[in-house]
Design goal:
- The protein is built from ten helices and 22 strands.
- It is α+β, with helices and mostly antiparallel strands.
- It folds into two domains: about 1-235, P-loop containing nucleotide triphosphate hydrolases (Rossmann fold); about 255-380, abc- transporter (atp binding component) like domain (Coagulation Factor XIII, Chain A, domain 1), CATH 2.70.50.
- The strands form five sheets. Strands 10, 13, 16, 17, 20, 21 and 22 form a seven-stranded mixed sheet that branches. Strands 5-6-7-3-8-9 form a six-stranded mixed sheet, sandwiched between helices.
- The longest helix has 16 residues, at about 175-190.
- It is globular.
């Protein structure tokens, strides 16, 4: 898939005519319009078999982009090249008739998405089984809950033999069990080499599944690249006015994020004896330490670290969020060390530490200073293993 210079705008009337009488009394009155540029010169490519994430704040242009790709909206400029059959899951319940039961809706929806009537009948049982709606198959959809409806819609979509799947916020509705089922299905979709465009506000899902991601803001592309980096920029845009104005703190070629009210000056690892080290022995007690200086007064900041291996798997994610979420107020010029101590159960290899200082809140984290892969350490071990960690265990044989 290739998108080049995509443009889409909408005309928003300033004055609305609500009745025929108003139109008849003022037939020549011309309404003034404002122009909303929903997409502005959007260009990107998605490789075959790639899991591509699209993120952005509400109103950034994500849904408009998907509707252009799906042919629902006509683009005002640019070009789109789609190599393969496209299946879209853009809005909950689109294409469903609420006065028909699930049985009829599955047949109609599957046919509209490209399956033949015979193939839709053959796959009906699989759709209902995945959606876990066997007891409600003859119930009209208007009596379904939103969770039941999204389960049915998602189940139909994954049965369609399309090379490209476009999925918009499918994980926003549904219980934890169904969300895990979606995660498992995403893993199978990846194994089958299908191309997926995933729109979501869940940065965990983006980092877990996506090969690359794209961040939109006000109809423009802000960032395309590694999911973790794009996720950090997304959080910046959510919580930082300076980031939205283009003046956000970004150093080290995009490896640093935050509003700059505090700075992580240095970070290191310590062995069981409390000495700084670049090498840790497996199975021993150790610690990660970071030195922070505050540039402005900050109340109740969060301090933490993520530890990743070379494949970007996160092996440790630790902070004071659950142990001491209100550490107090820190004044400008004050410094502190925060130390995270843990048992080193890591398998042999090199590990990268990403320390962060943040502000917590109901809407998520806002970075004050986050330094991607700021330091690293080598873990040594005597045993060869395919595992990510060396969990202690016992084995017993019985005959």
């Amino acid at each position: 898939m290739l998108v080049e210079g995509l443009q889409k705008q909408f005309r928003l009337p300033r004055e609305h005519v609500h009745t025929l009488k108003e139109r008849a009394l003022h037939p020549f009155r011309r309404s003034a319009y404002d122009t909303l540029r929903a997409l502005q010169d959007v260009s990107f490519d998605v490789r075959s078999g790639e899991f591509f994430g699209i993120v952005g704040r509400n109103g950034s242009g994500k849904s408009t982009l998907l509707k252009c790709l799906a042919g629902i909206y006509a683009a005002d400029g640019g070009a789109m090249y789609i190599n393969g059959r496209l299946s879209t899951f853009i809005e909950l319940g689109v294409g469903f008739n609420p006065d028909l039961p699930a049985r009829d809706n599955v047949m109609l929806n599957a046919t509209m998405l490209g399956l033949s009537p015979r193939e839709a009948v053959r796959r009906f049982d699989e759709v209902i089984e995945f959606a876990e709606l066997g007891e409600f198959v003859d119930l009209k959809l208007k009596n379904y809950s939103s969770g039941m409806e999204v389960r049915l819609a998602f189940s139909v979509m994954i049965q369609v033999d399309a090379e490209i799947l476009v999925i918009d916020e499918v994980l926003a509705v549904g219980d934890a069990a169904f969300q895990q089922k979606c995660f498992d299905e995403f893993a199978r979709i990846r194994e089958r080499g299908r191309t997926v465009l995933l729109v979501t506000h869940d940065m965990g899902a983006v980092q877990r599944f996506c090969d690359r991601a794209m961040l939109l803001e006000q109809g423009r592309i802000v960032e395309i690249g590694e999911p973790e980096r794009v996720g950090n920029r997304y959080l910046e845009l959510n919580f930082s006015e300076t980031a939205r104005s283009g003046d956000g703190v970004r150093h080290d070629a995009g490896r640093r994020f935050g509003d700059g009210r505090a700075q992580i000056l240095e970070a290191w690892f310590e062995d069981a004896g409390g000495d700084r080290t670049d090498v840790l022995a497996g199975g021993e007690r150790c610690a990660f330490v970071a030195r922070v200086r505050f540039r402005k007064t900050v109340k109740d900041p969060l301090f933490g670290v993520n530890l990743q291996n070379s494949r970007r798997d996160i092996l440790l994610s630790a902070s004071n969020l659950w142990t001491d979420p209100e550490p107090g107020t820190f004044a400008a010029g004050e410094e502190l060390l925060y130390r995270i101590t843990f048992d080193n159960l890591l398998a042999a290899g090199r590990y990268y530490a990403t320390p962060a200082v943040a502000r917590g809140g109901g809407a998520g984290l806002a970075w004050i200073d986050r330094r991607e892969q700021f330091t690293s350490v080598v873990v040594t071990g005597l045993r060869q293993t395919d595992a990510l960690v060396e969990l202690p265990y016992e084995i017993a044989l019985q005959r």
